[in-house]
Amino acid sequence: MGIKVVIVGGGSSYTPELMEGILKRHESFPVEEVVLVDIEDGKEKLDIIGNLASRMIEASGKPIKLSWTLNRREAFVGADYIATQIRVGGLKARAADERIPLSHGFIGQETNGAGGVFKALRTIPVLLDLAKDVHEICPEAWIINFTNPAGIVTEALLKHSPHQKVIGVCNIPYNMKHSIAEILEVKPQAVQIEFVGMNHFVFGQKVLVHGVNRTQEVLDRLCDDRVDYSPANIVNLGWSKTFIESTRLLPNPYHQYYFQTRDVLHKDLQAFQENGTRAEVVQSLEKSLFEIYKNPSLSEKPKELEKRGGAFYSDVACSLMDSIHNNKEDIQTVNTRNDGAIADLPDDAVIEVNCVITKDGPKPIAVGSLPPTIKGITLQMKAFEELVVRAAISGNYNDAYTSLVMNPLVADEKRSKEVLDELLDAHRAHLPQFYGGKENGKQVHAKVY
Amino acid sequence: MGIKVVIVGGGSSYTPELMEGILKRHESFPVEEVVLVDIEDGKEKLDIIGNLASRMIEASGKPIKLSWTLNRREAFVGADYIATQIRVGGLKARAADERIPLSHGFIGQETNGAGGVFKALRTIPVLLDLAKDVHEICPEAWIINFTNPAGIVTEALLKHSPHQKVIGVCNIPYNMKHSIAEILEVKPQAVQIEFVGMNHFVFGQKVLVHGVNRTQEVLDRLCDDRVDYSPANIVNLGWSKTFIESTRLLPNPYHQYYFQTRDVLHKDLQAFQENGTRAEVVQSLEKSLFEIYKNPSLSEKPKELEKRGGAFYSDVACSLMDSIHNNKEDIQTVNTRNDGAIADLPDDAVIEVNCVITKDGPKPIAVGSLPPTIKGITLQMKAFEELVVRAAISGNYNDAYTSLVMNPLVADEKRSKEVLDELLDAHRAHLPQFYGGKENGKQVHAKVY
Amino acid sequence: MGIKVVIVGGGSSYTPELMEGILKRHESFPVEEVVLVDIEDGKEKLDIIGNLASRMIEASGKPIKLSWTLNRREAFVGADYIATQIRVGGLKARAADERIPLSHGFIGQETNGAGGVFKALRTIPVLLDLAKDVHEICPEAWIINFTNPAGIVTEALLKHSPHQKVIGVCNIPYNMKHSIAEILEVKPQAVQIEFVGMNHFVFGQKVLVHGVNRTQEVLDRLCDDRVDYSPANIVNLGWSKTFIESTRLLPNPYHQYYFQTRDVLHKDLQAFQENGTRAEVVQSLEKSLFEIYKNPSLSEKPKELEKRGGAFYSDVACSLMDSIHNNKEDIQTVNTRNDGAIADLPDDAVIEVNCVITKDGPKPIAVGSLPPTIKGITLQMKAFEELVVRAAISGNYNDAYTSLVMNPLVADEKRSKEVLDELLDAHRAHLPQFYGGKENGKQVHAKVY
Amino acid sequence: MGIKVVIVGGGSSYTPELMEGILKRHESFPVEEVVLVDIEDGKEKLDIIGNLASRMIEASGKPIKLSWTLNRREAFVGADYIATQIRVGGLKARAADERIPLSHGFIGQETNGAGGVFKALRTIPVLLDLAKDVHEICPEAWIINFTNPAGIVTEALLKHSPHQKVIGVCNIPYNMKHSIAEILEVKPQAVQIEFVGMNHFVFGQKVLVHGVNRTQEVLDRLCDDRVDYSPANIVNLGWSKTFIESTRLLPNPYHQYYFQTRDVLHKDLQAFQENGTRAEVVQSLEKSLFEIYKNPSLSEKPKELEKRGGAFYSDVACSLMDSIHNNKEDIQTVNTRNDGAIADLPDDAVIEVNCVITKDGPKPIAVGSLPPTIKGITLQMKAFEELVVRAAISGNYNDAYTSLVMNPLVADEKRSKEVLDELLDAHRAHLPQFYGGKENGKQVHAKVY
Asked: Which of A127, B236, C125, C321 lies at a CB distance of 3.0 to 4.6 Å from B228, suitable for a disulfide?
């Protein structure tokens, strides 16, 4: 009995990578059926991707059945894995998440600050609904969620969905591991980084190569060489020797938003004036990607895809499904329930942590208490994430406000309200919990302001 | 057997207020002897204050013995209470704490941000040394510490001194209580505010009048009227209705640094360009105060003193000593060991909290878990304070750096170093733990940078 | 506007004491109306008590309206304080709680071990129901619960009732305070004992007289003199010098069940063979008490009442109501929500702790972490109490079993079941949650075994 | 460069098993040198074992260098793994640990109750001393400790030794896994049990076969069949269906001491009257074992060894060393620092838990909060263990007393002292921390009583 994988957001430009991952693992992870699902608005892209994926399968010679559909519930029948890579409101919504905070002098970014809050507020209801369907139709299936902010979204699902087989994934830990391997000139499989923290706020606190501690060497190299393990979408500003030596931790690329705020803001405002928001840059990137995808002679993932930030998402997701399927008990870094792994955080917090991957799900490896240097900011970020989840569920204006004002990238009691009001308005169509549904356009939960 | 009170930093312009407090409580708190202590540099001021205090006692007709001295250890013999109100480095040091951060675009303030860190780094070794003397010479005496940052300093003493009879006091909770009483048109004694947090980062979460909950009414008034319970040294910018309604908490005046950062910075930079640092303003204020103090016909606390920020410090400190002496078991808000009173913070953290005041010391009243809205930022601030205490003890450059970079008002990994280096240099004479003593000027602990 | 007090279980032999307490406090706590409530089965006793109380009021000359009734809901209208002193199943049920465990070789006691578990299982549903009525009819009223096991019952109410104005009281801390005062030859009001733990499992860890620490002296006296602060119903076996010196804590009389188990069991089995259960002794005591109460010339609490174990309950309860009414902010030891006061226990655990008593309820004074010597057993007892509350709510057979097997006085996996089955059967009429109501006698929740 | 293994307590009857384990793993774990170390008193046995081990190596044909010595420090030079299987005071001491408690009506057992406390008190100073040597001579070596009570001893080492490369092992989890595999008729390698708790107090809370949850099936079988996964030294009394169904946990064989105390005590007292203590039984068992070992034609582990309780210790220890050496990242159950893996226990507590075994040591897999049913007893046992460690270090009489009186198998404030005094006296020669060294026989720390 073969494996059925459903890709929700199947019309995404990332799907070819995921297909490639499935194809190249066919021996150990024998997928029998793939269904791509998308919404009405994404129909055109879905067709392009569907056709490309078909050609890829054909070229590979693997016996995989492929279909694409707008009917999510039908697609779920008999599914084993549901990969979710959706973007509620599309790149247009992302543009608002970036533009509005920037216009008030705050970081405008897809997964951090005010933008990240709103991406969460839009995404959580949709994925909760999806999880309800999964729980009803294919209760044994694992949801592998790539949708950002992956940590917050996974926490919302694990706290509020009856479906508990949910794992959040991100390519950042994977990229860090590969970059470190490159620096140390060893194979990535030989490297383990002990991660501590949350998605997009994770630090590496120990680097082991074949089990031998080489952390000091890596820290030295980070200082000397300004090693860049940023994804394509983040410009690395380099970390100071003092920061690295004082924390003795490996920051991740997103930490620049928190510890280089002023410089990043300056750079982003400049970029915004020159090229518009990152969303708009991506939009044009995507446009040309889809032109390439349409080419009927293309039957593999094109090189151009790597320019997008999500490189290796496919490897992360496919390795995870492979290890679950085969109860491999290998170590992968995913977003899952804390359960004490970081002693200072609540059991039901979702963290990004090394896990033993089993058929029974990921088992987090305990890392003990947070390093004192990052204890404060990590606790704050987690408390902020809890406020976002609360607001996403309640649809309460004040809850949304507190999540903004308590985010270290906003933290301005008057401007928070301005940013909040503009973002609520911009995303009105995708915030039913705040506006009480679209049927009559009448606002229910959201405050008149 | 009468009470002996020693005032360390006796030459401070605040001392007349303290004297007034002692005189007016003489019946319930019969002080027999007061000794004012100061250092060589403060000799002139000490003489002026000593003479004024003499005249105040004489005018009151109370049988109190007064003396002033530069010999701290002699003064401690037989002491019951040691009030500490010192300023290591004087207003000149304060000016650096304000000027240097401002010049890099950060809040430059005496007790918050980078300035607060350095005030702590200078003060902690001096007070630890003082506490060692107290423990040796008058081990039963209580240290009543007003020296800022009062919470951090008290935490350092309770964690690192053999002398454990130490209480930190601040006039902020007292002022908030009095302002609320005024708003509600009741007597201050009828009001209890349930405080939660740390010194200069404390919130009020419940207002009781004669035990009746009137929190909602107070919150409404805070929104409507922009009620000002700021001390004289802080300009109130007003809190938005949304902030008050969303947190449902009473902020304290110092919260503007954290939630109105941009506006405060703008205002402070302007003020700086116009009048120099607050330290310089205070310097000139003090100068005229001391002129007034010199007047041989003055035998009471002059009205002009109230313009300084510390109004009511005297009431706070004298009430506290009175209640300890008489085992009053009344409720006062002081800085003391947490011991679970705020469930989310470590037992050995110092918090600002309502306590039952007994001869056996303050007993904190438990307030349970932090409100979710301020959980994150409060945990971060406490973790930051721990980093400051660590740096003050270790004299380690990297420890000082992490305390700066993890302070939400700095949080810039490159500029933190610049600010740190300039402040270390400016305060070199008062940071023996970083520079290894003054005898040969050779730097021991501090890194060459 | 005067105060209305309702006494539920008004027909109890303790009521005259409570009446005395109300009468003697009339000046500061001006009760205007007292209603005694009881159930059909207690009608005869209620009449006797009602008449005695009437005579007591008349003799006192205080303007208090008295009535007695079987209609609880009517009695609650306009009530300010509800004192609950019920015994579900009466002394007959108590006899089973004592006899059945004893017959299997376990401690058979009203509030500890298997007997305590079943008293809780019978009482919790009745008081939850009562609290629901209170919440509906007189939502501002305080429930002052004396019903044992007072700690567990209070925890159940605070966790599962919408009515949160509930305080549990016990005379043990009061008795300990008074005994210590006697030992030290000081007034009870001068003594504060810092208590730590739960009802019937509370230790004293510090004795202050007028705020001065005299713990060592008390510990010495406890060793030397075998000071007896046991209530009338517990025979003191004396504590060894080693135990007192090693723990440096003041045990309470009920600790003998846990640390002198074998000796107590031996003594209790002997007493059982000679006089039957304690319930039966009490039954005959009560019989003669009620004979005395009937005497129409009696118009005060008779001396004979003190032979019952509950002496001073009245003082405890009336002092509490007085302090709430007058927002006295004095310190009393009651059972209330932990909220961090004992740092190792959950916030929502009910503990027995010194509190500041206000109109807004009791505010626990934080005592920090448990002393290491009693940390283990205290944590176990609290976890056991949580299991009892869970079983009382769920009516689940396995939940009841685990609460028994995890009680240190039972802890026998096979005999636990035997004891459980016999007790379930004996108390069938009073365990609707296990047997699904009485209407058709059909068992719903309880397992067939 | 080959591996050097030192076996401390090399003269133990278990050593042949360990040798067998080393020999059969030679390919993946290429040991080059084995040194057996013992003390003067064990010289004769050491010679017998040394000769047997020589013959075993010869028979195997593996190129392993073997030696035996009384000079521990010399043996440590260049060592990679130190296996510690000592018995301070020998079987004679064990006999006292068993006899003395039994004679007072308490469980007399080697690793539980009063006997376990004294085994810890004797062992901890010796192993701390050994660890100091290791840290000095071969700081990179791992100490693999089998010496009981393995959990407490490991906690003492990790808390008080500079040498942190210490892992405690026990065959109980291994045996449980193998028994479950047998019951389910699958290979042991396919089975993972999620363990929660401490050494000799560990429960299984989930059974996975190839990652598939089969816990319910196992629980059913445990009830039906009274499956016996006890080691040879413990007679299984069978667990009741109600206990298994109510806790939904797999007890380990030692849990009978806690939940079947009365029956075990009865059985043990009977066995004691018939055959003397277990120590004496073992003594005669050992005698005949050593007779067999002497046989110069024996060159393999004899079958008779399995009658001792420690079967499979070898597999546990050798698998562990193999996985460390090869950085296998497989899952094994060992005793290591908690670090949050069980959220309710302190970070620095030692627990018995599934770990990923790496060259950098064991990494515990987080299991979250304790199941509510066993939360209380587990917390108590851990707090008890902390008291034992404290007493072992302090040599303080009162500390030893509290560890006894707070053990659930003793818990008698008067008899604890009697048992304590007799055990202190019996083990005087091996309790230097209590008696201040042997040189002059003068007691230093232990109280005169």
From this structure: B236
Q: 3-class DSSP state for residue B122?
A: helix
All structural domains of chain C with their residue ranges = 3-168
Of the candidates D284, B362, B272, D70, the residue with the CA atom closest to the CA atom of residue B354: B362
Among C431, C438, C108, which Cα is nearest to C447's?
C431
Nearest chain A Cα to D365, which residue?
Answer: A365
Sign of the alpha-carbon dihedral angle for D45, D48, D50, D56: negative
CATH topology of domain C3-168: Rossmann fold (3.40.50)
Look at the block and give the residue holding tokens 């019946």.
B27
Tracing tokens 């007349």 back to the chain, one arrives at B16
Test mutation, A347, A353, A355, A370, chain D, max D CBs within 10 A: A347
Q: Are C277 and C99 in contact (CB under 8 A)?
A: yes
Contact between D368 and D344 (Cβ < 8 Å): no
Residue pLDDT tens, chain D, 449 long? 689 999 999 999 999 999 999 999 999 999 999 999 999 999 999 999 999 999 999 999 999 999 999 999 999 999 999 999 999 999 999 999 999 999 999 999 999 999 999 999 999 999 999 999 999 999 999 999 999 999 999 999 999 999 999 999 999 999 999 999 999 999 999 999 999 999 999 999 999 999 999 999 999 988 775 566 666 566 677 899 999 999 999 999 999 999 999 999 999 999 999 988 888 888 888 899 999 999 999 998 888 777 665 667 888 999 999 999 999 999 999 999 999 999 999 999 999 999 999 999 999 999 999 999 999 999 999 999 999 999 999 999 999 999 999 999 999 999 999 999 999 999 999 999 999 754 343 333 333 33
Count of other CB atoms within 10 angstroms of residue B212:
12
What's the whole-model pTM score? 0.94
Three-class DSSP category at B25:
coil
C365 and B356 within 8 Å at the Cβ level: the answer is: yes
What is the 3-class SS of chain C, one letter each residue?
Answer: CCEEEEEECCCCCCHHHHHHHHHHCCCCCCEEEEEEECCHHHHHHHHHHHHHHHHHHHHHCCCCEEEEECCHHHHHCCCCEEEECCCCCHHHHHHHHHHHHHHCCCCCCCCCHHHHHHHHHHHHHHHHHHHHHHHHHCCCCEEEECCCCHHHHHHHHHHHCCCCCEEECCCHHHHHHHHHHHHHCCCHHHEEEEEEEECCEEEEEEEEECCEECHHHHHHHHHHHCCCCCCCCCCCCCCCHHHHHHHCCECCHHHHHHHEHHHHHHHHHHHHHHHCCHHHHHHHHHHHHHHHHHCCCCCCCCHHHHHCCCCCHHHHHHHHHHHHHCCCCEEEEEEEECCCCECCCCCCCEEEEEEEEECCEEEEECCECCCHHHHHHHHHHHHHHHHHHHHHHHCCHHHHHHHHHCCCCCCCCCHHHHHHHHHHHHCHHHCHHHHCCCCCCCCCCCCCC
Q: Say if residues D352 and D344 touch (Cβ distance below 8 Å).
A: no
Contact yes or no for B73/B137 (Cβ under 8 A): yes
What are the structure tokens assigned to B279, written together?
A: 């330290």
- β pairing state of B330-337 and B350-358: antiparallel
Q: Does A105 touch chain B (CB under 8 A)?
A: yes
C293 is catalytic: no
Pairing of strands A3-8, A81-84: parallel
Nearest to B359 among C210, C360, C364 (CB): C210
> ipTM for the complex?
0.94
Candidates D359, D375, D378: best to mutate against A (most CBs of A within 10 A) is: D359
For residues D90 and D53, is the Cβ–Cβ distance under 8 A? no
Whether A99 and A272 have beta carbons less than 8 Å apart is answered as yes
* Residues C308 and C284: beta-carbon distance below 8 Å: no
User: Are C169 and C334 in contact, with CB atoms under 8 Å apart?
Assistant: yes
